[in-house]
């Protein structure tokens, strides 16, 4: 079945991204693994190739295309190099860009967006706290007004790009005791006095991406760094979560397809008992099940991309896409390790890395239990 959501311009964009991945990302993979971050050179090259500000208006250095299919293509191609790249660049391009484009004043856009698009300003979004990420409305990082500044105190954890970020969107409580109604969003610049980064967290997978803990100790930001309306941070985050979950689903299913493709190539050439293991009925049935699951999930994700384009994607559907694809991905990567035998358990093999990289997709962007909550609640209210 041919995918029908793309047009010629998306195919051309895919070729350009694939070239970027082959020429810029893959050759620096080892360096990124050693440094524990997507190196600046990749960010700068992505900026020069116009990949970082897809939805940003051209006057600020962006591509000015309000068409999520380009974002999907970018994620699909980056995922082939490793989930960490889709995560690092994806948080910047699909998650944070909409905040900076839609919630900001003209002066803020002029201040931040050119550097955001060129790769000079790496962005992160800091919602999750050590006390818990699922209950976002319960966050405790405080921002208190003093004169025409806000003073931020608290800490955040598991923040993608947190160690290298130059712009951090921080969710902080501006009205004590009011849960979802009292949260506002601030841009904290990377060199702000009082901002401490706890070093790169030692993740199970995705070693090429940095994930950090952030501490805010009397961090002062001017009023001009508030984004969106004061106290309206929670609904803004909820609104943007649908695209974040869709992006997560796009990566999950692209990754499943990639891993399955590699597994099929492997079983065709690996022999046991004098014949390729692909010739065993067990292997064929296993591949049949994985291919069916992946193809069905892919069809749903493409339908969600189309619905998102027309503004019809609901929060529940985005949650379904994230839930289903992360579970398909878990099944595929686990089976692929098995089909690779002992080599599949070696850190040096790509399939072992894919298996470790994928474990987090049932946890981040809202855990799968929270996805079930979102879906179940919408069906039963
Ligand atoms: C690699 C990585 C990158 C991340 N990047 C970012 C980022 O850039 N920015 C950011 O803000 N956050 C980020 N996160 C945080 C991520 O979104 C949270 O880890 C996630 O939301 C879960 O929060 P928690 O870890 O505090 O788990 P908890 O909220 O403590 O949950 C623990 C367990 O309890 C379950 N649980 C909680 N509530 C319920 C419920 N109501 N019903 C059923 N089960 C429930 C959860 O499903 C989970 O299984 C990242 C996490 C990781 C691991």
TrEMBL record:
> By its UniProt entry, which InterPro entries does this protein fall under?
Acyl-CoA_DH_CS, Acyl-CoA_Oxase/DH_mid-dom, Acyl-CoA_Oxase/DH_mid-dom_sf, AcylCo_DH-like_C, AcylCo_DH/oxidase_C, AcylCoA_DH/ox_N, AcylCoA_DH/ox_N_sf, AcylCoA_DH/oxidase_NM_dom_sf
Listed A to Z, the keywords are: Branched-chain amino acid catabolism, FAD, Flavoprotein, Oxidoreductase
- Top-rank taxon, per record: Bacteria
Read off the Pfam families from this record: Acyl-CoA_dh_1 (PF00441), Acyl-CoA_dh_M (PF02770), Acyl-CoA_dh_N (PF02771)
All residue ranges annotated as the Acyl-CoA oxidase/dehydrogenase middle domain in the record:
124-219
The residues forming a coiled coil are none
**Position of the signal peptide:** none
Cofactor(s) for this UniProt protein: FAD
Metabolic or biological pathway, per its Swiss-Prot or TrEMBL entry: Amino-acid degradation; L-valine degradation
Every Acyl-CoA dehydrogenase/oxidase C-terminal domain range:
231-379
What are the Acyl-CoA dehydrogenase/oxidase N-terminal domain coordinates in residue numbering?
A: 8-120
Keyword flag rRNA-binding: no
Q: Which GO terms describe its biological process?
A: branched-chain amino acid catabolic process
Cite a single GO MF annotation: acyl-CoA dehydrogenase activity
On whether Electron transport is a keyword of this UniProt record, the answer is: no
Q: Indicate the family of this protein.
A: Belongs to the acyl-CoA dehydrogenase family.
Q: Which PANTHER family match?
A: ACYL-COA DEHYDROGENASE (PTHR43884), ISOVALERYL-COA DEHYDROGENASE, MITOCHONDRIAL-RELATED (PTHR43884:SF12)
Which protein are we looking at?
Answer: Acyl-CoA dehydrogenase
**Source species:** Rhodococcus wratislaviensis NBRC 100605
């Amino acid at each position: 079945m041919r995918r029908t959501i793309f047009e010629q311009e998306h195919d051309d964009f895919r070729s350009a991204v694939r070239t970027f991945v082959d020429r810029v990302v893959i050759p620096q993979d080892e360096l990124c693994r050693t440094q524990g971050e997507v190196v600046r050179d990749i960010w700068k090259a992505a900026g020069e190739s116009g990949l970082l500000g897809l939805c940003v208006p051209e006057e600020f250095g962006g591509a000015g295309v309000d068409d999520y299919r380009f974002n999907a293509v970018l994620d699909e191609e980056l995922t082939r190099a490793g989930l960490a790249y889709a995560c690092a660049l994806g948080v910047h391009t699909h998650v944070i860009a909409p905040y900076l484009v839609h919630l900001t004043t003209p002066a803020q856009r002029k201040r931040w967006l050119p550097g955001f698009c060129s790769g000079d300003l790496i962005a992160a979004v800091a919602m999750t706290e050590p006390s818990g990420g699922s209950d976002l409305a319960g966050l405790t990082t405080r921002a208190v007004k003093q004169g025409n500044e806000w003073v931020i105190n608290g800490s955040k954890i598991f923040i993608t790009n947190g160690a290298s970020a130059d712009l951090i969107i921080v969710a902080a409580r501006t009205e004590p005791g009011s849960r979802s109604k009292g949260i506002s969003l601030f841009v904290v610049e990377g060199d702000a006095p009082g901002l401490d980064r706890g070093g790169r967290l030692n993740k199970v997978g995705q070693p090429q991406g940095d994930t950090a803990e952030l501490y805010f100790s009397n961090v002062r930001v001017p009023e001009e760094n508030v984004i969106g309306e004061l106290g309206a941070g929670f609904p803004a985050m909820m609104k943007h979560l649908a695209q974040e979950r869709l992006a997560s689903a796009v990566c999950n299913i692209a990754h499943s397809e990639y891993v399955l493709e590699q597994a099929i190539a492997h079983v065709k050439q690996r022999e046991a008992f004098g014949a390729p293991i692909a010739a065993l009925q067990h292997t064929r049935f296993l591949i049949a099940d994985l291919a069916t699951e992946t193809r069905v999930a892919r069809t749903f994700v493409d339908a969600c991309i189309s619905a998102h384009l027309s503004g019809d994607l609901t929060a529940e559907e985005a949650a379904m896409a994230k839930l289903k694809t992360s579970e398909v991905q878990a099944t595929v990567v686990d089976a692929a390790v098995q089909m690779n035998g002992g080599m599949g358990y070696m850190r040096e093999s790509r399939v072992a890395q894919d298996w470790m990289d994928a474990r987090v997709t049932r946890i981040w962007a809202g855990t799968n239990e929270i996805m079930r909550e979102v879906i179940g609640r919408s069906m039963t209210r």
